[in-house]
Write a structure and sequence with these properties.
This protein is an alpha/beta fold. It has one domain: TIM Barrel. The chain contains ten helices and eight strands. The protein has helices at residues 37-49, 71-87, 99-107, 125-132, 157-174, 194-202, 204-208, 222-227, 242-254, 265-284; strands at residues 16-22, 54-58, 92-95, 112-115, 135-139, 182-185, 215-216, 259-262. It starts with 15 loop residues before the first strand and ends with a helix. The relative contact order is 0.15. Bound molecules: pterin-6-yl-methyl-monophosphate. Pterin-6-yl-methyl-monophosphate (PMM) binds at residues 20, 22, 27-29, 62-63, 95, 114, 116, 137, 139, 185, 187-188, 215, 217, 220, 261.
């Protein structure tokens, strides 16, 4: 799977590392810390220093229960950060469900549109991505954050997520997106319970049969906090799950993930190197 090369994006020969800059006051795990544009740009540059191949800039929180921000507010949050990082030569991805934000981001230098709704939230998204020609992360999604937990119902999550992703792929291809622009994401935590996330991670090989590179976003998510709950049953807080994130990165990269989306870049960049050496030795026999 990591043998894929996506036009316009780095090709390191190993699993890529996408570092996260959330320009939001309320994000999943690092809300508020990078809300000021200058601080956000500085943080993105620091992530590159630490080994990020791509920096993902988002202006809308997708944590479960989150309300939507306005288009104007989202543009206002991400535009200066994307422009600033792109001017420094950073490969920037924009984390947005809105076609207008994607269009502006590409004009400001973004090389990848990361759409957690897989084109479902905004019917204009596929056309914008097709016209821009940049890479597109199409994530598995069943609905907006405010009520996504109600949709976490599956009998065979790997099969259902694969089928739903395949339908979305067909739909965006029909709108003119090229196949080589596409990167797929099972959407850990988005309308998924912990057991669904684990099944999808264990099913990476089957998701790879979709024939496109896979990105995995497990970093600091609640299913890790739940796994590591203390004796009182309280989930571990988000920021204390970086070691568990690292374990997921090593295993996912070993199993052929094309990219991991993470908050704490340096150790994850080391982990993908370990996985690459492991895979290379495996291939040599
Ligand atoms: N998760 C979040 C935001 N964006 N994008 C992709 N492609 N995959 C993900 O799993 C994903 C994402 C939510 O996490 P955060 O609020 O901690 O950044």
């Amino acid at each position: 799977m990591s043998a894929f090369t996506v036009p316009g994006l780095p090709d390191t020969g190993r699993c890529l590392v996408m570092g996260v800059v959330n320009v939001t006051p309320d994000s999943f795990s690092d809300g508020g810390r990078w809300f000021n544009p200058d601080t956000a740009v500085a943080h993105g540059l620091a992530l590159v220093e630490q080994g990020a191949d791509i920096v993902d800039v988002g202006g809308e929180s997708t944590r479960p229960g989150a309300a939507r921000v306005s288009l104007e507010e989202e543009l206002h949050r991400v535009e200066p950060v994307i422009r600033g990082l792109s001017a420094e030569g950073v490969v920037v991805s924009v984390d947005t469900m809105r076609a207008e934000v994607a269009e502006m981001a590409v004009a400001a230098g973004a090389k990848l549109v990361n759409d957690v709704s897989g084109g479902l939230a905004d019917p204009a998204m596929a056309r914008v991505v097709a016209a821009s020609g940049v890479a597109y992360v199409l994530m598995h999604w069943r609905g907006h954050s405010r009520d996504m937990e109600n949709r976490a119902i599956y009998t065979d999550v790997v099969t259902e997520v694969s089928e739903e992703l395949r339908k979305r792929v067909d739909s965006v291809l029909a709108e003119g997106v090229r196949e080589d622009q596409l990167i797929l994401d099972p959407g850990l935590g988005f309308s998924k319970q912990a057991e669904h996330n684990w099944a999808l991670l264990a099913g990476l090989g089957r998701l790879g049969e979709l024939g496109r590179p896979l990105i995995i976003g497990a970093s600091r998510k609640r299913f890790l906090g739940r796994l590591l709950a203390g004796a009182n049953g309280e989930p571990r807080p988000f920021a204390d799950n970086d070691d568990a994130t690292l374990a997921v990165t090593a295993l996912a990269a070993r199993d052929g993930a094309w990219c991991v989306r993470v908050h704490d870049v340096r150790p994850n960049a080391d982990a993908v190197r370990v996985a690459a050496a492991w895979r290379a030795a495996d291939e040599r026999g």
